[in-house]
Amino acid sequence: MPDVTANGIKIHYEERGQGDPLILIMGLGADGSLWEDHVKAYEKHFRCILMDNRGAGQSDKPDGPYTTEMMANDVAGLMDALNIEKAHINGISMGGAIGQMLALNHPEKVRSLVLVSTWAKCDKYAQIVFDHFRDVRPKVEMRDFLKLIQLWIFAADHYEKHYDDLAEGQEEGQANAADMMPDHSFSAQCDACIGHDTTARLSEIKVPTLITIGDKDIFTPFNFSQYLHDNITGSEMLVLEGCGHAHHWEDLMTFNSKTSAFMQKH
Fold this sequence. Notes:
Mean pLDDT: 97
CATH class: Alpha Beta
Distance between the termini: 28 Å
Strand order of the largest sheet: 1-2-4-3-5-6-7-8
Strand content: 15-25%
Radius of gyration: 17 Å
Order of helices and strands: EEEHEHEHEHHHHHEHEHH
Low-confidence stretches: none
Shape: globular
CATH architecture: 3-Layer(aba) Sandwich
CATH superfamily: Alpha/Beta hydrolase fold, catalytic domain
Number of domains: 1
């Protein structure tokens, strides 16, 4: 599991599979290991790069503020360090915001773009959600914070059917709380999410783009993805019914199959 120095920080990554390069960018508070269930499918077709974002996992955790533009430059620097000229980009939530910035500021590096449960700009509702996450995290046990996150990202039906697994995840998070990202870098990632705004530039994205969303997403609601679809020329949109923000886990087989096919097509 190697590291590179890029954009002034150490960036940790894992590499799996062979084929066209695929850079996988995780969301708020998460490291690259959470791509595991997707990489089992992707590595059959692609050279997968699972990176830890600035502030997460084993990458450096400098003081904030962070921006999605800064974090897109981290991705570009990682690609340069690995001699990857062009790659498929797949980003979840905050990772999708980073992916937008990469496609805007480094279009020559992007072969195709998959934007998962993401946004062009936070409305007041989304800003308050991120503010609430940032405020609550230092004040509660990690298991309670993870319970809060799960209630936001999973659809109610999924929560009902998989409660035992989710509760186990809360306890595992509590046991590993000391290894989780520090509060200062979580807060800095929240700043990046709140400050992200590509509304004036989306029409500049010319690479093949797939936008995916769960129709029960209360965190980044359907209209966020519809806006991206309406403003990125030629983009495609995949709606997974009955799923929430974490539709990429809730309907894993469909998500993996559809996104793999899209990237292979391009």
